[in-house]
Amino acid sequence: MIAVLQVKPAVCGGMTMKRRTMEYHIDGLIALLLFGVFAACLMAVLFTGANAYRRLTFRNNMFYENRTCAQYMTVKVRQMNDPRAVEIESFGEGDALVFPEGEYVTRVYYYDGYLMELYSEKNSALGPEAGEKVMEAGGLKLSLEDGMLLITITDREGTGEDLMLSLYDEGEVAA
Protein backbone atom coordinates (compact mmCIF):
# COMPACT_ATOMS: atom_id res chain seq x y z
CA MET A 1 0.00 0.00 0.00
CA ILE A 2 1.06 3.41 -0.76
CA ALA A 3 0.41 6.00 1.79
CA VAL A 4 -0.79 9.28 0.40
CA LEU A 5 -0.40 12.26 2.53
CA GLN A 6 -3.05 14.80 1.95
CA VAL A 7 -2.61 18.43 2.79
CA LYS A 8 -5.64 20.52 3.27
CA PRO A 9 -5.79 23.05 0.45
CA ALA A 10 -7.30 25.77 2.64
CA VAL A 11 -4.31 25.82 4.99
CA CYS A 12 -1.71 25.57 2.26
CA GLY A 13 -3.56 28.03 0.05
CA GLY A 14 -3.85 30.47 2.95
CA MET A 15 -0.09 30.45 3.54
CA THR A 16 0.55 30.95 -0.14
CA MET A 17 -1.84 33.93 -0.28
CA LYS A 18 -0.11 35.63 2.63
CA ARG A 19 3.28 35.03 1.06
CA ARG A 20 2.10 36.35 -2.32
CA THR A 21 0.53 39.44 -0.74
CA MET A 22 3.76 40.17 1.08
CA GLU A 23 5.76 39.73 -2.17
CA TYR A 24 3.40 42.14 -3.95
CA HIS A 25 3.89 44.76 -1.23
CA ILE A 26 7.68 44.45 -1.42
CA ASP A 27 7.59 44.62 -5.23
CA GLY A 28 5.40 47.72 -5.02
CA LEU A 29 7.72 49.36 -2.50
CA ILE A 30 10.77 48.63 -4.66
CA ALA A 31 9.01 50.08 -7.74
CA LEU A 32 7.95 53.16 -5.78
CA LEU A 33 11.48 53.59 -4.41
CA LEU A 34 12.98 53.33 -7.92
CA PHE A 35 10.45 55.85 -9.21
CA GLY A 36 11.36 58.23 -6.36
CA VAL A 37 15.09 57.92 -7.13
CA PHE A 38 14.40 58.52 -10.82
CA ALA A 39 12.25 61.58 -10.03
CA ALA A 40 14.92 63.00 -7.69
CA CYS A 41 17.63 62.54 -10.34
CA LEU A 42 15.41 64.14 -12.97
CA MET A 43 14.72 67.15 -10.73
CA ALA A 44 18.45 67.54 -9.97
CA VAL A 45 19.28 67.56 -13.69
CA LEU A 46 16.49 70.05 -14.43
CA PHE A 47 17.57 72.44 -11.64
CA THR A 48 21.21 72.22 -12.72
CA GLY A 49 20.25 72.94 -16.34
CA ALA A 50 17.98 75.83 -15.35
CA ASN A 51 20.73 77.37 -13.21
CA ALA A 52 23.27 77.07 -16.03
CA TYR A 53 20.78 78.60 -18.49
CA ARG A 54 20.12 81.52 -16.11
CA ARG A 55 23.85 82.23 -15.72
CA LEU A 56 24.50 82.07 -19.48
CA THR A 57 21.53 84.31 -20.25
CA PHE A 58 22.70 86.90 -17.71
CA ARG A 59 26.25 86.85 -19.12
CA ASN A 60 25.01 87.13 -22.70
CA ASN A 61 22.74 90.06 -21.80
CA MET A 62 25.64 91.91 -20.18
CA PHE A 63 27.87 91.34 -23.23
CA TYR A 64 25.01 92.38 -25.50
CA GLU A 65 24.57 95.67 -23.62
CA ASN A 66 28.31 96.42 -23.75
CA ARG A 67 28.55 95.59 -27.46
CA THR A 68 25.42 97.56 -28.27
CA CYS A 69 26.68 100.62 -26.42
CA ALA A 70 30.09 100.42 -28.13
CA GLN A 71 28.47 99.98 -31.55
CA TYR A 72 26.14 102.90 -30.88
CA MET A 73 29.08 105.18 -30.08
CA THR A 74 31.02 103.93 -33.12
CA VAL A 75 28.10 104.55 -35.47
CA LYS A 76 27.56 108.06 -34.08
CA VAL A 77 31.21 108.95 -34.79
CA ARG A 78 31.21 107.32 -38.23
CA GLN A 79 28.00 109.14 -39.26
CA MET A 80 29.79 112.47 -39.09
CA ASN A 81 30.78 114.00 -42.43
CA ASP A 82 34.00 115.13 -40.78
CA PRO A 83 34.82 112.96 -37.74
CA ARG A 84 37.58 115.42 -36.81
CA ALA A 85 34.83 117.87 -35.78
CA VAL A 86 33.89 115.63 -32.83
CA GLU A 87 34.46 117.41 -29.53
CA ILE A 88 34.33 116.58 -25.84
CA GLU A 89 32.75 118.98 -23.36
CA SER A 90 31.66 118.84 -19.73
CA PHE A 91 27.94 118.09 -19.51
CA GLY A 92 25.71 116.22 -17.10
CA GLU A 93 27.56 113.98 -14.67
CA GLY A 94 30.76 114.10 -16.67
CA ASP A 95 31.87 114.58 -20.24
CA ALA A 96 29.74 114.57 -23.37
CA LEU A 97 30.67 113.59 -26.87
CA VAL A 98 29.55 116.51 -29.05
CA PHE A 99 28.70 116.13 -32.74
CA PRO A 100 28.29 119.58 -34.38
CA GLU A 101 25.73 119.78 -37.19
CA GLY A 102 25.55 123.39 -38.37
CA GLU A 103 23.61 125.45 -35.81
CA TYR A 104 22.76 122.31 -33.83
CA VAL A 105 24.69 119.74 -31.85
CA THR A 106 24.07 116.21 -30.71
CA ARG A 107 25.45 115.39 -27.29
CA VAL A 108 25.96 111.84 -26.08
CA TYR A 109 26.61 111.66 -22.34
CA TYR A 110 26.01 109.76 -19.11
CA TYR A 111 23.31 110.94 -16.73
CA ASP A 112 21.40 109.30 -13.89
CA GLY A 113 22.27 105.69 -14.77
CA TYR A 114 21.70 106.03 -18.51
CA LEU A 115 23.59 106.79 -21.66
CA MET A 116 21.69 109.81 -23.00
CA GLU A 117 21.44 111.72 -26.27
CA LEU A 118 20.37 115.34 -26.64
CA TYR A 119 19.85 117.14 -29.95
CA SER A 120 19.64 120.91 -29.45
CA GLU A 121 20.91 124.29 -30.59
CA LYS A 122 24.58 124.93 -29.93
CA ASN A 123 24.02 127.48 -27.16
CA SER A 124 20.86 125.95 -25.73
CA ALA A 125 20.29 126.16 -21.98
CA LEU A 126 18.84 122.63 -21.85
CA GLY A 127 20.22 120.49 -19.05
CA PRO A 128 21.22 116.84 -19.13
CA GLU A 129 17.79 115.70 -17.92
CA ALA A 130 16.27 116.92 -21.22
CA GLY A 131 17.98 114.20 -23.26
CA GLU A 132 16.59 110.89 -24.45
CA LYS A 133 17.58 107.72 -22.65
CA VAL A 134 19.49 105.45 -25.01
CA MET A 135 20.34 102.57 -22.68
CA GLU A 136 21.24 101.78 -19.09
CA ALA A 137 24.88 102.24 -18.21
CA GLY A 138 27.14 102.59 -15.21
CA GLY A 139 29.29 105.42 -16.53
CA LEU A 140 31.04 106.99 -19.49
CA LYS A 141 34.56 108.44 -19.72
CA LEU A 142 35.89 110.19 -22.80
CA SER A 143 39.30 111.42 -23.92
CA LEU A 144 40.58 112.78 -27.20
CA GLU A 145 44.29 112.82 -28.08
CA ASP A 146 46.04 113.09 -31.44
CA GLY A 147 42.95 112.17 -33.44
CA MET A 148 42.21 109.10 -31.29
CA LEU A 149 38.99 109.03 -29.31
CA LEU A 150 39.06 106.77 -26.24
CA ILE A 151 35.65 105.87 -24.88
CA THR A 152 35.33 103.86 -21.65
CA ILE A 153 31.84 102.51 -21.12
CA THR A 154 30.98 101.05 -17.73
CA ASP A 155 28.00 98.74 -17.37
CA ARG A 156 25.63 98.50 -14.38
CA GLU A 157 27.85 95.84 -12.80
CA GLY A 158 30.87 98.17 -12.90
CA THR A 159 32.71 96.36 -15.68
CA GLY A 160 34.39 98.78 -18.07
CA GLU A 161 34.97 98.34 -21.77
CA ASP A 162 37.38 100.52 -23.73
CA LEU A 163 36.72 101.59 -27.28
CA MET A 164 39.36 103.44 -29.29
CA LEU A 165 38.35 105.17 -32.52
CA SER A 166 40.50 106.97 -35.03
CA LEU A 167 38.92 110.20 -36.21
CA TYR A 168 40.97 110.21 -39.43
CA ASP A 169 40.32 108.35 -42.65
CA GLU A 170 42.81 105.79 -43.93
CA GLY A 171 45.83 107.49 -45.39
CA GLU A 172 45.30 110.73 -43.45
CA VAL A 173 47.89 111.70 -40.88
CA ALA A 174 47.12 113.64 -37.72
CA ALA A 175 48.55 117.15 -37.84
From TrEMBL:
Keywords: Membrane, Transmembrane, Transmembrane helix. It holds the Pfam family DUF4860. The chain crosses the membrane at residues 29-53. It comes from the Bacteria. InterPro entries: DUF4860. This is DUF4860 domain-containing protein.
